[in-house]
Amino acid sequence: MRGKFISIEGGEGAGKSTVIAAIVQALGQHGLEVVQTREPGGTPAGEAIRTLLLDPARTLAAETELLLMFAARAQLVRELILPALARGAVVVSDRFTDASFAYQGGGRGIEMGRIAELERWAAGIKPDLTFLLDVGVDEGLARARSRGGELDRIERERSDFFERVRATYLSRAAAEPGRFRVIDASQPASAVVAAVTRALSEWRTRA
Ligand SMILES: Nc1ncnc2c1ncn2[C@@H]1O[C@H](COP(=O)(O)OP(=O)(O)O)[C@@H](O)[C@H]1O
Ligand SMILES: [Mg+2]
Questions:
Q1: DSSP characters over 43-87
Q2: Which of 17, 37, 111, 134 is least surrounded by CB atoms within 10 angstroms?
């Protein structure tokens, strides 16, 4: 499995970080170079943009939020993802463009066609495989809160926002069943990790 791009998506507290740690370890055991990254961020410029995006003290228009997400993503693709794929590495990203469709499209109401246009020229690539960790909004938010620390600007949204995010993720997964694997993330973490690991090894033997 050389030069593959895997993204992990899902709402707040779905277990993305938990799953990524397990996947990176599993892939590393196969002697592959694994490059782990996250959005927004993943590069020095992107992490600076992340700080701006998630600062609860900022007020950002939906369009500003979308463009900053894609500004960080454009940098991430060119500085980190494409060079890693060219070396034959497996790139595992905590979120990618599906998150913009879910949050800025579904959540904020920006027209999906505008996001698709940015996807074409600013991102320019799509993941080969995407895991959607699906969990109820209240359950996810409770987990995110239990992690401790301050909630970021987006985590402070109301639950109807996150319901739209979840519905958009699920409809995207239904529209692209070849790329998506939807995982029931309401299960205990060990079961979620096992389901992801199983789906990943099945995908590897087919890819
Ligand atoms: N399946 C699960 N069941 C219960 N708690 C979980 C599960 N997965 C993760 N957690 C816990 O919930 C919190 C959020 O998980 P995390 O992996 O940080 O989610 P995300 O990165 O998607 O926001 C963490 O404290 C984590 O230990
Ligand atoms: Mg996380």
A1: SHHHHHHHHHHH-TT----HHHHHHHHHHHHHHHIIIIIHHHHHH
A2: 111
Superfamily of domain 4-206: P-loop containing nucleotide triphosphate hydrolases (3.40.50.300)
pLDDT digits (tens, 9 = 90+) for 4-44: 999 999 999 999 999 999 999 999 898 899 999 999 999 99
Nearest CA to ligand 1 atom 14: 13
* Residue 140, ligand 1, Cβ within 6 A: no
**If you measure from the C-alpha of residue 1 to the centroid of ligand 2, how many angstroms do you get, rounded to a whole number?**
25
Ligand 1 atom nearest the C-alpha of 190 is 1
Q: Which residues contact 184 (CB under 8 A, 6 or more apart)?
A: 134, 135, 192, 195
Q: Is the CB of 59 under 6 A from ligand 1?
A: no
User: For ligand 1, atom 11, which residue shows the shortest CA distance?
Assistant: 143
Measure 114 CA to ligand 1 centroid, in angstroms.
32
Q: Where are the domains of the chain?
A: 4-206
Beta carbons within 10 angstroms of residue 65's beta carbon:
22
Give pTM, 2 decimals.
Answer: 0.97
Ligand 1 touching residue 95 (CB < 6 A)? no
